[in-house]
Design a protein that fits this description.
two-stranded antiparallel sheet; mainly alpha
Length: 189
């Protein structure tokens, strides 16, 4: 995986180079004081994992990201959310809740509508029902913290799913030609 004169010598090295270049560009953009406008752009402009990868590629000036990278990107977000939810039972820090929202949102990128519906349901159950686990002797408080953290991550996933869905519907309603007759009115969002 050696990079000779800045060029990758294998497929694995080229993927690692893309990831490295993306993070280098992201960190330099953030350190330049853009206050995460690029992250907002990436989330609101992305419909699926592949178009999200294309958006990252255009934004950071790197070549096209493979589909498997976007699947791993979402999987890493999901794994980090679960790990951080477990850690939150033992460590108290004000940055944990925003990180759970962020990792949950990353995990939701590219979900299908059916999967988003399941995420909405899990978010509601976890947020409302996590406190009931306090009745479990000895470990109840830890279980409450873990499942509350998971609930926060699912709320982040739900927020990203709702944002992407609304953006898709607004784009469909205003930027694509309508195939409905003139007198027909849409009644639901």
């Amino acid at each position: 995986m050696r990079l000779a004169a800045g060029k990758p010598d294998s497929l694995e090295a080229s993927q690692a180079y893309i990831i490295w270049a993306t993070w280098r560009r992201f960190l330099s953009t953030v350190s330049a004081g853009t206050d995460f406008a690029c992250v907002k752009y990436l989330i609101t402009q992305s419909y699926t994992r592949q178009t999200f990868g294309d958006t990252i590629s255009r934004w950071f000036g790197v070549s096209k990201l493979p589909e498997e990278f976007m699947e791993r990107f979402s999987a890493v977000g999901r794994a980090l959310a679960v790990i951080l939810a477990i850690v939150s039972a033992f460590v108290s820090n004000p940055i944990i809740a925003p990180l759970l929202l962020l990792f949950g949102g990353i995990a939701a990128i590219g979900n299908t509508p059916e999967r988003n519906t399941k995420n909405y349901q899990m978010a509601i159950v976890l947020v409302i029902g996590a406190n009931l686990l306090e009745a479990v002797p000895y470990i109840g408080t830890y279980l409450v913290a873990i499942f509350t953290g998971l609930g926060i991550a699912f709320v982040g996933a739900s927020i990203v799913a709702i944002t992407i869905t609304l953006e898709q519907r607004i784009t469909r309603d205003w930027l694509s030609p309508s195939s409905k007759p003139v007198g027909q009115v849409k009644t639901a969002l």
